[in-house]
Amino acid sequence: MRIVFALGLLVVSLLSGSFGYAAEWGDLKLTFVYDGTAPVATSISVNKDPQYCGPFGLVDEQLVVNKENGGIANVIAYIYTRTGPKPAVHPDYAATANAKVVLDNKKCRFEPHVALLRTSQTLVLKNTDAVGHNTNYSTFSNPPQNILIPSSGQVEKKLTLAERLPAKVACNIHPWMTAWLVVQDTPYAAVSNKNGELVIKNLPVGKWTFQFWQESGGYVASVKQDGKATEWKRGRVEITIEPGMNDLGEIKYKP
Question: If you average pLDDT over residues 198-211, what whole number do you get?
Fold first, then answer.
């Protein structure tokens, strides 16, 4: 009888998340807002293929601030595990574990401006424009590549190692074109939308360190949280994830 009872406890423990398995999950949300008057977007001088690229109204995307609410787009966040344990992965992420992630040369810019890639996924480099482009990404852990992609062409690549920081992507034919490639070995990464909202879903509960980075300023280090000046050393901050939504509110930042 005691043996049966002990076995029952073991089964319950395994199902409830003991022995290293996460039993509960939470979402992390932050809203990045420009600290000051929102800067005006700078127009790009189109000096290559002007007949084709000129009409697209291209602007510098190093710092994109929503003039309506001050939200900062393209702030990057991911869980930092170089010096700690790997997080358990929520079952919902299994469906996209081997998905293809597209980075397109479209309207003489990269779409998206920030591409999030897991090491189990495949990167698809496309060119939907009527002119030729090259996609030159400067990775560190993975071999860097500089690939010429003709109109309507595409190339698939595997990047099997996590990158410590976002890797720059450029088109040497059209020098204003830049993007960023975030390669991680967990699915816990996100980029802020046009309103500055950034959400990482289904994190295991507990204390985790997160890395924050933005193209114009690099490490998101000097911020204001709850109205108080705060320093995130090298853009890293430890956050306790509790079950449900963990909303840190507005984070004011000026790159």
Answer: 98
Output the pTM of the full model.
Answer: 0.90
Torsions phi, psi for 194 (to 5 deg): -65, -20
According to the model, what pLDDT value does residue 82 have?
A: 82
In this structure, the number of other CB atoms found within 10 A of the CB of residue 80 comes to 20
236, two tokens: 């890293």
State the Cα–Cα distance between residues 144 and 109, nearest whole angstrom: 20
Please state the domain extents for the chain.
23-253
- Give pLDDT tens digits for 14-43: 333 333 344 699 999 999 999 999 999 999
Sort 55 into a burial class: Cβ within 10 Å, 0-12 / 13-18 / 19+.
exposed
Choosing among 2.60.40.1730, 2.60.40.420, 1.10.10.10, 3.40.630.30, the CATH entry for 23-253 is 2.60.40.420
